[in-house]
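hey
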């Protein structure tokens, strides 16, 4: 009984202390929780003086709360024992950030930005080292196999476990850095004083801030690679041009890593002024504490959460603790009883709300600008013919597409191990083919008994040459892969695709660029396809195709086991509608009415002048 009583008291104290720590760092707008720390006995100020620049609550902490060391010893060497020069890296977060942010640290350790599960699993799957691209992986699983060396020398710079080891603001070249990757901000004065320190060794008196002002620049370093979401969002498409090959920079720009991008069209949300974090909130970014294989499993937000006729809401009082505190820190001045939540897992969208008339609004987290949320138009919801279409399948204006890549191992060139951070003998090298852009190909993602049509991009149309890796490599050890990946291109347009841009577009269906024609022949009216690109010798398909014309591929063709191209029966259905569109406009009453009934039944009522395609 006594033991239980003592345990209860200790548990209560522990909960109070941890809770107080969380409140301390997550609620500085309520004076009753603010704690003033005395610095009179801290020896840190003997050299560093009274630092300013921190966010309100972090600024009240002792230096040793984050930097460790010993603040009761006077000499530099003794007081700096155990010093953490740059707190926030995942390697020491358990000693620093976790004291007040235990839940956040636990979540981020399980998040895809830390584990890189999908990147690692798909890579090892291609190298035949895993049986499934959906395997659950972590950075620590990467050793020194053939695939691992490929990951180490080319891919694994962008993960939160990559330590930040230099004093510098976050910029285009920043990769990783744990908590700093998102939360580190330098004021102009802090930048100036940092420069003086690096050049003249003058100790700064203005500290960079750790706060919630997470700009798109924080996301850009990692998310301008691979899927190129950050560059897409701004409207820029990567090219293979060199700077000296560009004569007019009006529609081009060059990044710090010297890549050249061409402006195509920015996402409507970027055009209106929304930042990445206005859609992607706490659980999207930090994770929910669970491990996932691919990003679409982890992401909670969807278009329908803000653009629907019936938006789900929750009251502030029912929000989880962290979201309540973030709501108050951000000083989001909107109705507390009608906060939006996602349809998937009911995750709070703390900057979204319904007004007293039931109209939806979204408030920018960075500048508090208010945007009115528009429900879908009748063309999005009319009938049931497009029930399986996702918003992005219709409203994605363009997507990046790369074809014709070659990957090989160069044992005569020094590489750089991105995990061990050292030069190594030999490196994997990628040679790019062509970088294209255009309306995305569409594919089918199966989720249980449901299926959704989503954008697809070439995850890899490449030759993997393993002949130079290792002592026992075979001279002809090369494999060709044609795998597409489900994508969220972040190039949303207010205007959706036209009917013909899907039903009469070979690229959308998966055949690649070319010309689809519907004409009469000896065997009746048929569709024919002439490809723009020549067929590759490896598999007989055009260079930019996913599948053959009216063929069904039984080969491995996707980076996800639940994602596939259209089956032959689905292709035929798409092209039947496409045949109608050769005469009837997409917004005609004939085509509108076809969405409200079974299409095969609808065809029985057609005019004798209408032609239905014949399929073999």
């Amino acid at each position: 009984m006594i033991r239980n009583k003592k345990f209860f008291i200790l548990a209560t104290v522990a909960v109070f202390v941890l809770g107080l720590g969380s409140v301390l760092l997550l609620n500085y707008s309520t004076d009753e929780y603010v704690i003033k720390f005395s610095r009179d006995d801290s020896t840190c100020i003997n050299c560093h003086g009274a630092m300013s620049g921190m966010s309100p609550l972090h600024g009240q902490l002792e230096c040793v709360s984050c930097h460790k060391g010993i603040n009761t010893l006077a000499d530099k060497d003794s007081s700096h024992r155990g010093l953490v020069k740059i707190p926030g890296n995942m390697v020491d977060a358990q000693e620093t950030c976790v004291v007040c942010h235990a839940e956040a640290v636990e979540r981020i350790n399980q998040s895809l930005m830390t584990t890189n599960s999908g990147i690692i699993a798909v890579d090892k799957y291609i190298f035949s080292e895993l049986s499934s691209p959906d395997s659950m992986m972590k950075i620590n699983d990467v050793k020194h196999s053939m695939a691992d060396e490929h990951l180490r020398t080319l891919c694994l710079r962008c993960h939160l476990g990559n330590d930040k080891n230099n004093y510098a603001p976050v910029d285009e070249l920043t990769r990783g850095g744990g908590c700093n990757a998102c939360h580190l901000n330098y004021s102009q004065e802090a930048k100036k004083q940092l420069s003086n320190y690096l050049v003249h060794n003058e100790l700064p008196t203005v500290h960079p801030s750790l706060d919630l002002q997470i700009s798109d620049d924080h996301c850009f370093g990692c998310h301008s690679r691979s899927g190129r979401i950050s560059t897409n969002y701004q409207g820029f498409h990567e090219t293979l041009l060199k700077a000296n090959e560009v004569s007019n920079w009006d529609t081009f720009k060059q990044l710090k890593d010297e890549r050249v991008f061409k402006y195509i069209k920015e996402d409507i949300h970027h055009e209106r002024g929304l930042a990445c974090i206005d859609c992607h909130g706490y659980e999207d970014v930090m994770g929910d504490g669970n491990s996932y294989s691919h990003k679409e499993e982890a992401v909670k937000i969807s278009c329908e959460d803000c653009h629907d006729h019936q938006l789900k809401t929750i009251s502030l009082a029912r929000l989880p603790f962290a979201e309540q505190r973030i709501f108050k820190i951000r000083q989001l001045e909107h109705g507390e009883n009608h906060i939006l939540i996602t349809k998937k897992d009911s995750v709070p969208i703390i900057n979204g709300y319904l007004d007293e008339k039931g109209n939806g609004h979204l408030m920018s987290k960075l500048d508090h600008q208010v945007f009115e949320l528009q429900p879908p138009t009748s063309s999005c919801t009319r009938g049931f013919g497009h029930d399986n279409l996702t918003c992005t399948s219709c409203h994605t204006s363009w997507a990046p597409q790369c074809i014709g890549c070659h990957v090989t191992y160069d044992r005569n060139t020094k590489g750089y191990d991105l995990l061990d951070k050292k030069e190594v003998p030999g490196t994997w090298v990628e040679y790019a083919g062509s970088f294209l852009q255009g309306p995305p190909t569409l594919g089918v993602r199966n989720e249980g008994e449901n299926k959704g049509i989503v954008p697809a991009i070439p995850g890899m149309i490449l030759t993997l040459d393993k002949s130079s890796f290792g002592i026992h490599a075979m001279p002809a050890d090369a494999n060709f892969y044609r795998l597409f990946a489900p994508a969220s291109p972040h190039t949303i347009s207010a205007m959706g695709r036209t009917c013909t841009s899907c039903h009469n577009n070979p690229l959308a269906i998966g055949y690649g660029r070319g010309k689809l024609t519907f004409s009469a022949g000896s065997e009746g009216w048929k569709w024919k396809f002439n490809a723009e690109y020549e067929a590759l010798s490896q598999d007989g398909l055009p260079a930019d195709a996913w599948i053959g014309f009216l063929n069904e591929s039984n080969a491995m063709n996707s980076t996800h086991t639940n994602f596939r191209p259209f089956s032959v029966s689905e292709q035929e259905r798409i092209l039947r509608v496409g045949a109608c569109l050769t005469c009837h406009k997409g917004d005609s009453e004939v085509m509108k009415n076809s969405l409200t009934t079974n299409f095969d039944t609808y065809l029985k009522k057609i005019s004798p002048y209408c032609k239905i395609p014949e399929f073999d």
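Residues 296-301+308-372 form one domain. Residues 1-38 have pLDDT under 50 and may be disordered.
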